[in-house]
Amino acid sequence: MKKVLLTAAVAMSTLVASAQFMVVTTYDGDLEENADKITANLGVGYMVNDAFTVGLAKNGLAAEGEDDSYKLWARYNIAQVEGAYASLEMPTEDGSENMRIGVGFAFNVWNDLYIEPNYSMPTSEDEVTGDREGTFNFGVSYRF
Predict the structure, then answer these.
(1) Residue 116 burial (CB count, 10 A)
(2) I want to staple 141 with a disulfide (CB 3.0 to 4.6 A). Which of 9, 24, 37, 102 is the partner?
(3) What local confidence, expressed as pLDDT, does residue 118 receive?
(4) Which of 36-45, 71-80, 113-122 has the lowest mean pLDDT?
(5) Would you kindly state where each structural domain of the chain is located, as residue ranges?
(6) pLDDT at 94
(7) Hey, CA dihedral for 81, 103, 101, 117, is it positive or negative?
């Protein structure tokens, strides 16, 4: 049993040593002027390969007395266009009903710092209004 655990630990350490991670955030213009505009949607992702990244991020600021909520996200880099990607976001609560799909472009600003304008829209219509209105977002990421 000790050999199995040791082998698993070595395999995981080599996986992490060769991995590339990224820290992402989306600018939230609805919040008042402070650091929450940047940190409300802060997250981390694991680049599985050159084309596919998965991660976990905060889903905005929690209301007074509520726990923070999170969302899972995945990104697929489009091979034909350098920097273009398709994305999928899913909250951890009621995720299949509140998924969002989108497209974006990552501009390399300096070393591994990227600015990422993107557009996302819900996969299903709003139950009350019937709208399926998308939003334009402005993100920042750093890869290490």
Answers:
(1) 20
(2) 24
(3) 92
(4) 36-45
(5) 19-143
(6) 74
(7) positive
